[in-house]
Amino acid sequence: MSAKQSNYRWFVVVVFFFFMLLHQTDKLMIGSLQVQISDDFNITNTQWGLVNSGALIVATILYPIWGYLYDHYSRTKLLSLASFVWGATTWLNAIVKSFGGFLVTRASTGIDDSSYPGLYTLIADYFGPNLRGKVYGILQLAQPIGYLVGMILALMVAPAIGGWRSVFYITGSLGLVIAVLIFFGVREMPRGKAEPEFENMTEMQAFKFSWVEAREIFKKKTMWFIFLQGFAGVFPWNVITYFFFAYLEKERGYDANGILFTMAPVILILAAGYFVGGALGDAAFKRTNKGRIIVSSVGVLLGALFMYLAISTPVEAKNQFFILMCLTAIFMPLSSANVIATVYDVTVPEVRSTAQAVEYFVENAGAAFAPILTGLIADMYDLKTAIILICTVAWLLCFFFYLGAIFTIDKDSRDLRKQMEDRANAM
Prior knowledge:
Layout: H1 3-32, H2 34-41, H3 45-72, H4 75-95, H5 99-108, H6 110-113, H7 116-124, H8 129-140, H9 142-161, H10 164-185, H11 211-216, H12 221-250, H13 256-287, H14 291-311, H15 318-331, H16 336-346, H17 352-367, H18 370-380, H19 383-406, H20 409-426
């Protein structure tokens, strides 16, 4: 690969990083705005859960459609369209004045939330298997940093510029800008280009979507364990995203500054954990096909332990709570980049968007109901009970699902490499 090509692929990473950063800021900011929006519309925890579940349900329904489109058409043009939809729906969400209108327009923001499979598969065609974990870790830094930026916008900027609607106008406008940048600045890459078997080929066959290969996704045992961990694993993330700030304010007595100075370091540690997880996964993968799964299983087990200890900490023990949350943040994201890379370690290039979309569909099929389930438990008991119950149970289930994948990953990974080798020899 020439220096020019290498530099360009990192330019693509930078563009997609800012797409994800600003999109995640827009998406996750609502958690920090819970109290402001709830007071504005005078709604309960259950109604708040319904607001967030609506967007997740829409995203869940659309994942297979996005996946199908990405495996058939230009991923860059579709990602540009997704960014445009993000900007437009966020503007609509800011305009409406009734709770019913807010509920509907917030659900519409889920349309673009299911657009990531195309981004990840395009990156997989720029970077080979031994680098993907690190690159995905870099890209996924955008999620916690976006969470932090959203928190600052919600807690400090929104009150100064006229409220939560004003910041929605800002983030929606940025979505439109990014749409133009992707449309004109990012080039499509042939599917499978970065697979090691095709590394020295100047020209290669264009791999096209095949229903036969799509059905093969479901014959790989590793994918079933990935689906199961995905179903359980996103529950905690949605609970934390949409309810943790209200928990800090209402049940632990933090004011806006207390929330910011407590959570900002935690979120920065969380951000570092994405890259660390991806790097550890790549290093372990070079030694054994089980490497990414081992890193992931350690992450969810220790994340569950430290989250339980943190939430169980007495309210007055703020330093202890802070330390335990920092420890939780180290381990929570270790599996994220590794799950994406594992999907591509066992599936052929022309159906990877579909495979990723199915995995996200399964994730969201469960997670879409996490906010409303959390709201119901919180209204029956309290937010502390809801957070402990959902987070610990979900992550422990993920640990056992990863144990299952350890016994299947070797065969599925070897089968893919053999298939790529056969294709390369046939060219």
